[in-house]
Specification:
The complex is a heterodimer of chains A (113) and B (110). Chain A has 113 residues and is mainly beta. Chain A contains no helices and eleven strands. In chain A, the strands form two sheets. In chain A, strands 2, 4, 5, 9, 10 and 11 form a six-stranded mixed sheet that branches. Chain A has a five-stranded antiparallel sheet with strand order 1-3-8-7-6, with no helix packed on it. In chain B, strand 4 and strand 5 form a beta hairpin. The mean pLDDT of chain B is 92. The chains are: A mainly beta (113), B mainly beta (110).
Chain lengths: 113, 110
């Protein structure tokens, strides 16, 4: 079993819809959770960063962590074609820089105009 | 602010040729540095990481090596490329939990 599981998609939704992206994990020590957005042929860019359980909102994006279920989500409201990208989740236990991040494989998202 | 530079963006090399990819970070001191390879549908594979000058840890046995000759410089090398070395190579740095990536190098070995 992989430490982090992420549905690879592809996921296609119409413009304006709410998008829900998810990851599950098995390591209960994970406390720091990140979402990255990666456009085609580009490096991943950090989108959201959360610590422990709860919600964090940034504009149209909301990151949600449920540690009891070992489940994290990223919601995108009022989706736009420019949101079309691959979204990767990542997590770590200590939050210390020399700990390696554990990544999901990424979900490819397409927003249809 | 911190920035990370990675070059070249694309590279086509023949089998058996050497490789050198360079990554530099600006605006931070003593960063942790990483080399990843990304294959389609397989996510990010950590190849090497470094917590300081001359300190390199290898995650996966392979045809590649890494060096950190200066605090903010990280180099990925190979003496003889294999077809299987083709892929998208990403350099990243971190100081806390989150990592920041360069724009990547798409390497095609022919």
């Amino acid at each position: 079993q992989k430490e982090v599981e992420q549905d690879p998609g592809p996921l296609s939704v119409p413009e304006g819809a709410i998008v829900s992206l998810n990851c599950t994990y098995s390591n209960s020590a994970f406390q720091y959770f990140m979402w990255y957005r990666q456009y085609s042929r580009k490096g991943p860019e950090l989108l959201m960063y959360t610590y422990s359980s709860g919600n964090k909102e940034d504009g149209r994006f909301t990151a949600q962590v449920d540690k009891s279920s070992k489940y994290i989500s990223l919601f995108i409201r009022v989706s736009q074609p420019s949101d079309s990208a691959t979204y990767l989740c990542a997590m770590s236990a200590t939050g210390v820089g020399n700990e390696k991040l554990t990544f999901g494989t990424g979900t490819r998202l397409t927003i249809i105009p | 602010s911190q920035t990370i530079h990675q070059w070249p963006a694309t590279l086509v090399q023949p089998v058996g040729s050497p490789l050198s990819l360079e990554c530099t970070v600006e605006g931070t001191s003593n960063p942790n540095l990483y080399w990843y390879r990304q294959a389609a549908g397989r996510g990010l594979q950590l190849l090497f990481y470094s917590v300081g000058i001359g300190q390199i840890s290898s995650e996966v046995p392979q045809n590649l090596s890494a060096s950190r000759p200066q605090d903010r410089q990280f180099i990925l090398s190979s003496k003889k490329l294999l077809l299987s070395d083709s892929g998208f190579y990403l350099c990243a740095w971190s100081s806390m939990a989150e990592a920041f990536f360069g724009q990547g190098t798409r390497l095609t070995v022919v």
